[in-house]
Q: What sequence folds into this?
């Protein structure tokens, strides 16, 4: 190992295999992950146990989404020679750490996490399981088990990580005997790009407004044609307001050099929405083409994807078993 690798921070992040990765994932998260492959010692988790907290009734869907999701990560530039991709459920040390840490976490800490009540209001009380309540603690275990130091999070996830940091401090205080048995993870606050969907809301598969990475070019073009634009621009020559138009917002990611020209022509009425969308659909397909081509290669080679997951999981388990042994020793369980 070189001194350069030693100074790289250990970054940990993950995604639930719920299927349907879209343009928002690509420009928001996966581009960053691809960068982390060079700038950090990166661990990326297939968070399949987390998927059960809200999708426990459909285990096959979680199973089916797993390799497809990793194929998209790889196609988007996540490099398995530089980063470690692992399957959460195949690292049993995470679940064991979760059980051990659950002994010292007051229920009130978990109940006060803002997303707990918010998600129950949004998705219904049937998701209010014991596992769902413990979701932020399981997240901490994902991080702690690889001694993750940095966690890229959006603002809505900061409270989860803060809870995790409190748990680590409590653990080290109770059992550490002056030593830092568990590492306190720090948030790397990330402004994830807001990518609008076809109805102007945030792009999301559950809103049925997303351009999927796996979509064909024809489907992509059709979806772009159906996008909301400025509702006040009814005819081609009407002056438009690019600042309220989702298509204009998407241009930022696909070809930012064109923004000034489009804004001026939209405002003056020289550019109509049909022409702009048609030009955009073409450029978007060109932008996604290399990713889609790579995705096709990984889809055709499930053995390679399985191997990448298996190798990453084995590497993760080597660290995880050492961390778990430290924890058990500190708790006088060994
Ligand atoms: S011309 Fe383009 S930027 Fe202007 S409202 Fe129509 S789609 Fe949006």
A:
């Amino acid at each position: 190992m070189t001194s350069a690798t030693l100074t790289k921070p250990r970054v940990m992040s993950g995604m639930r295999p719920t299927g349907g990765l879209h343009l928002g994932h690509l420009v928001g998260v996966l581009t960053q992950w691809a960068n982390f492959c060079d700038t950090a010692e990166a661990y990326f988790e297939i968070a399949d146990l987390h998927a059960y907290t809200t999708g426990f009734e459909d285990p096959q869907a979680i199973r089916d989404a797993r390799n497809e999701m990793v194929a998209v990560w790889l196609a988007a530039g996540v490099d398995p020679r530089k980063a470690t991709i692992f399957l959460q459920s195949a690292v049993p040390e995470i679940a064991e750490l979760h059980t051990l840490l659950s002994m010292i976490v007051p229920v009130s800490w978990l109940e006060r996490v803002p997303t707990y009540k918010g998600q129950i209001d949004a998705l219904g009380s049937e998701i209010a399981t014991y596992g769902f309540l413990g979701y932020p603690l399981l997240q901490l275990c994902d991080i702690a088990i690889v001694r993750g130091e940095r966690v890229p999070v959006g603002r809505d996830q900061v409270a989860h990580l803060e809870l995790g940091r409190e748990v680590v401090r409590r653990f080290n205080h109770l059992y550490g005997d002056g030593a830092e048995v568990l590492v306190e993870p720090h948030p790397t606050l990330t402004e994830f790009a807001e990518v609008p969907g076809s109805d102007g809301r945030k792009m999301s598969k559950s809103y049925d407004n997303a351009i999927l990475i796996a979509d064909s070019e024809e489907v992509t073009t059709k979806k772009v044609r159906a996008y909301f634009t400025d509702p006040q621009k009814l005819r081609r020559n009407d002056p438009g307001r690019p600042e309220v138009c989702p298509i204009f917002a998407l241009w930022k990611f696909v070809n930012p050099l064109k923004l000034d020209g489009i804004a001026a022509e939209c405002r003056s009425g020289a550019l109509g929405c049909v022409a702009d969308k048609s030009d955009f659909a073409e450029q978007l397909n060109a932008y996604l083409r290399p990713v889609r081509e790579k995705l096709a290669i990984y889809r055709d080679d499930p053995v390679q994807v399985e191997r990448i997951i298996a190798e990453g999981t084995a590497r993760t388990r080597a660290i995880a078993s050492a961390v778990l042994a430290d924890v058990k020793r500190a708790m006088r369980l060994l």
User: Anything to note?
Assistant: Residues 302-330 form the longest helix (29 residues). The first strand starts at residue 10 and ends at 15. DSSP finds 15 helices and five strands in the chain.
